[in-house]
Amino acid sequence: MEQDFAAEASRTLIGLACAVPAYLIWGLSPIYFKTLKSVPAFEILMHRMIWSFVFLVPVVLVQGRWVEFARALTQKRILLPLAASTFLVSFNWFLFIWAVNTDRVLQTSLGYYINPLVNVLLGAVFLRERLRPLQLAAVVLAAAGVLNLLLIYGQLPWVSLGLAFSFGFYALIRKTAPVGSVVGLTVETMLLTIPAVGYLVYLDSVGRGAFLRIGLRTDLLLVAAALVTALPLVLFTRGARRLRMATIGFLQYIAPTGTFLLAVFLWGEPLSSSQLLTFALIWTALAIYSTDSVRTYRMQRAVKAS
Question: If I label 24, which of 165, 233, 255, 265 is the partner at 20 to 30 A Cα–Cα?
Answer without folding.
Answer: 165
